[in-house]
Write a structure and sequence with these properties.
Blueprint (H helix, E strand, L loop, with lengths): L3 E8 L2 E7 L5 E2 L1 H16 L5 E6 L7 E2 L1 H7 L1 H20 L4 E5 L2 E3 L1 H8 L2 E5 L3 E3 L11 H4 L5 H10 L2 E3 H6 L5 E3 L4 H13 L3 H13 L5 H18 L1 H8 L6
Helix pairs in contact: 1-3, 2-3, 3-4, 3-10
């Protein structure tokens, strides 16, 4: 598979949207928009009844490309914000259920993707977290709150710690935890079970379930993004990024 975003249909009713941006799947702005387009397109296909969101490489997603943001400054941040917003919304609003197949690290933007999916299958080595405060950023607490209870979400957010797939399964947000080599198969197994249902009824079910969500994830995440931009324009973000990886500040 060429680097980027690809879509395949390995079996009837199931589309796999796979991301591959070596070395760590930290997506550039164009990558987020490409992912959004691929997920929306798969969901609109009348032959598709379930989408599997997967990734190649060591980890599921490491968030945005910080180097791109630093190189482009404010324009880079605006692009990343808009790209993430579109990709997260595309997963949430996909016309059919989305199963996230998560391996290795699921950080930053990865939380936005997994948190907006309908179901998550994870490998035993998967870890989930928002290291945003260590990287001069904010955001995706909206989506982490869909994976863990409120006080744990706050603790993970403030400390930049991660939670394991097993811990998330204990909280009910991960459907299955499997060995890494069985991840894609396990995700396809769940997708196959979902895709066995009537396609039109599945689309109605997805719309109905989204309609009863207690939090409007689009509005909530957009609110968070305002503080991300404030951190950037005030200089706080750059100050923190300059010390990232250099020990105590």
């Amino acid at each position: 598979m060429l680097m980027g975003v690809s879509t395949s249909c390995p079996e009837k009713g199931v589309a796999v949207v796979a991301v591959d941006f070596p070395p760590v799947n930290a997506l550039p702005v164009t990558g987020w928009f490409s992912l959004a387009d691929a997920v929306r397109s798969a969901g609109r296909d009348p032959q598709v009844r379930c989408v599997v969101l997967a990734a190649e490489g060591r980890g599921f997603n490491a968030g945005v490309d910080i180097k791109e943001i630093r190189a482009k400054g404010g324009r880079g941040l605006i692009g990343a914000n808009r790209g993430c917003f579109e990709a997260f919304a595309a997963v949430y609003e996909c016309e059919v259920p989305v199963v996230a197949a998560v391996q290795g690290f699921c950080l930053g933007g990865g939380i936005g993707l997994a948190g907006n999916a309908d179901a998550i299958v994870a490998s035993e080595d998967a870890v989930f977290g928002l290291p945003e405060l260590e990287r001069g950023a904010l955001g995706a607490a909206t989506h982490l709150a869909r994976l863990v209870p409120p006080h744990l979400m706050r603790t993970l957010y403030y400390t930049s710690r991660t939670a394991t797939a097993a811990e998330l399964r204990a909280h009910g947000s991960v459907w299955r935890v499997v060995p890494r080599d069985g991840l894609r198969g396990a995700a396809l197994e769940l997708a196959r079970e979902i895709a066995a249902k009537d396609g039109e009824l599945l689309r109605l079910a997805k719309a109905a379930i989204n309609g009863i969500d207690p939090v409007d994830v689009r509005r909530s995440y957009r609110f968070e993004q305002g503080f991300t931009f404030e951190a950037q324009t005030s200089g706080v973000a750059d100050r923190v990024r300059d010390t990232f990886g250099k020990g105590d500040t």
